[in-house]
């Protein structure tokens, strides 16, 4: 039994589909009706719905559930459904009725290790799931879920008082989520709605599009990036296969954004220095130039955010040792590369390994906010991956123009280049009369990349139209 294959109970999973409500009523009325009917029934629904989602996505998936009363704060802004300690009563009752399996958690006093209780559907409940007349397409995140998150130094959500700033940010993220909810986003060549990686599956689902904006260290000036959406979790090679409303997409990426922002904060336009690639600054005895650049880039970006050299080097080793097995990730080797980076970037050398980098995340989040707001106000779908964006090929010109505007409006002396994956329609047609061979070659290339559209994709699209556009 693999108890590590688990995720926290998602108390925000919700559905008002008539068949879902009929299922919950059946279980509740036949087995669980007691105490305050409305309050308990809501808790039953939350647990049953997420047990169904977990079972449907992976029959071996476990849900982590806190069984301590102190873990539940019904009046928290992060608990819009007001889920209380009655969750514990429902879990125990479902276990007593043999609807779920339960493995109690534990806490080792004086140690960092521990584990919350795990639950998962038992055969008795699975039989009801198999008869259910609904599917994952009938689920979504509850519309009142908080989208502006403030976390402390321990990465725990903390309460805060609303200001005009937080209200404005919340309005934008909610509007963005509403646009995504109405937009069919999928990968046509996928039969199953997931991508299998070495040790996990990433689900390509219409109910995995919910976005939140997360700030760190109890400060509105740190982090603030937009998180969520399955496109942020899939490998880059799969992102180019995404379709929006049955249209192929392009992805535009700010090239070397964080180094350029560091220089801009010092009043220096990096590109005016004509130094070239900011990551091509260290000598490594390696044959593979891609791995070499990745090591330097990862160390560079990690050093910006790390508080000290040791934690920086440990993080780099953890991230890359599988990809670069022939490189020795010793303190000495990584320190040598870091010193070369500092020597080649003397203007910003004092910004490494002192925790200043999280401020850059806030800057790039402001840039992303500008881009997202422009597209949302025009009701045009856009997918954000922090410092890169995916749009339909027909919106390529608008995206490039908006990304340039965003940087110019947020910070002076920053002029990052924009890299593109794929070919946009405006980009290609602008060369139609100037270079006909180029135009024809690009159109042939787009046609050659047309996906093998599976029947399963067409079925998912049909379900989306029935459930989200009715």
Describe this structure as you would to a colleague.
The protein is 42% helix and 14% strand. The protein is of the alpha+beta class and 470 residues long. The protein has three domains: 6-145, no CATH class; 168-259 and 358-468, no CATH class; 279-344, no CATH class. The strands form six sheets. Strands 10, 15, 16, 17, 18 and 19 form a six-stranded antiparallel beta sheet that branches. The chain has a four-stranded mixed beta sheet with strand order 1-3-7-4. Helix 11 crosses helix 12. The longest helix has 21 residues, at 37-57. The mean pLDDT is 89.
Task: Quickly describe the structure.
The chain has helices at 18-32, 37-57, 86-96, 123-131, 164-181, 236-239, 257-265, 289-305, 309-320, 331-344, 358-377, 396-410, 425-429, 436-448, 455-468, and strands spanning 6-8, 13-14, 62-65, 100-103, 106-107, 114-115, 117-121, 140-141, 148-150, 185-186, 194-196, 201-203, 212-215, 223-227, 243-244, 247-254, 383-384, 388-392, 418-421.
Largest sheet: 6 strands, antiparallel
Oligomer: single chain
Q: Which structural category do the helix and sheet elements fall into? A: alpha+beta
Mean pLDDT: 89
How much helix, percentage-wise, in residues?
A: 40-55%
Q: Span between N and C termini? A: 42 Å
Give the strand content: 5-15%
Give the helix/strand layout.
Elements: E1 6-8, E2 13-14, H1 18-32, H2 37-57, E3 62-65, H3 86-96, E4 100-103, E5 106-107, E6 114-115, E7 117-121, H4 123-131, E8 140-141, E9 148-150, H5 164-181, E10 185-186, E11 194-196, E12 201-203, E13 212-215, E14 223-227, H6 236-239, E15 243-244, E16 247-254, H7 257-265, H8 289-305, H9 309-320, H10 331-344, H11 358-377, E17 383-384, E18 388-392, H12 396-410, E19 418-421, H13 425-429, H14 436-448, H15 455-468
Parallel strand pairs: 1-3, 9-13
Antiparallel strand pairs: 2-8, 3-7, 4-7, 5-6, 10-15, 11-12, 13-14, 15-16, 16-18, 16-19, 17-18
